[in-house]
Amino acid sequence: xxxxxxxxxxxxxxxxxxxxxxxxxxxxxxxxxxxxxxxxxxxxxxxxxxxxxxxxxxxxxxxxxxxxxxxxxxxxxxxxxxxxxxxxxxxxxxxxxxxxxxxxxxxxxxxxxx
Amino acid sequence: xxxxxxxxxxxxxxxxxxxxxxxxxxxxxxxxxxxxxxxxxxxxxxxxxxxxxxxxxxxxxxxxxxxxxxxxxxxxxxxxxxxxxxxxxxxxxxxxxxxxxxxxxxxxxxxxxxx
Lengths: 114, 115
Known about the structure:
The complex is a heterodimer of chains A (114) and B (115).
Chain A: E1 3-5, E2 10-14, E3 19-21, E4 24-26, E5 31-38, E6 44-50, E7 56-58, E8 64-68, E9 73-78, E10 87-95, E11 103-104, E12 108-113
Parallel strand pairs in A: 2-12
Antiparallel strand pairs in A: 1-4, 3-9, 5-6, 5-10, 7-8, 8-9, 10-11, 10-12
Chain B: E1 5-7, E2 10-13, E3 19-24, E4 31-37, E5 43-50, E6 65-69, E7 75-79, E8 88-95, E9 105-106, E10 110-114
Parallel strand pairs in B: 2-10
Antiparallel strand pairs in B: 1-3, 3-7, 4-5, 4-8, 6-7, 8-9, 8-10
């Protein structure tokens, strides 16, 4: 079975400061890794995903994430945040063996202070 | 093009009533998923449809929950004899192909409140 842990339920940061949202996972099989974002009053949309190859993945809006297999982590980072980045961020994993079993974390609410 | 749409956007019902939630996936998308998101929690997988294959119902929490999909079109999620614990946002997503690597495209959700 797979599980995803997002260690911080809320992360407040000042505008233009860097941010890291943490994600750790547990799985007995290889997985694909995703970050989805949910802006206020909007549906979830894909931010980035790791399938294979380079462990550093770049996504939309200046976000990037690094897959660390030894630490089973997939932390999301942005060097300088904007007010428009205020949203809830979900880490997710999907095992290679199944199309249906995408497992989501509980989410991290990122709030940006001016 | 048009994204995934869901209706109604909000539904308030009394305990014990049946409700039906609708999802219109992106045209041509083979796979369709239903999730439940309780307040302050992550997304809980409910059911998955892939083309004409038998759906994966392993996430349905009880026999009060059922879902149907005709071909690669509209899906309906039905909750019978609703309970207060069913209150949540129900999200639908579709993807072009059935595969763990494929991006899922989400609808805006239906917020269900059971009084």
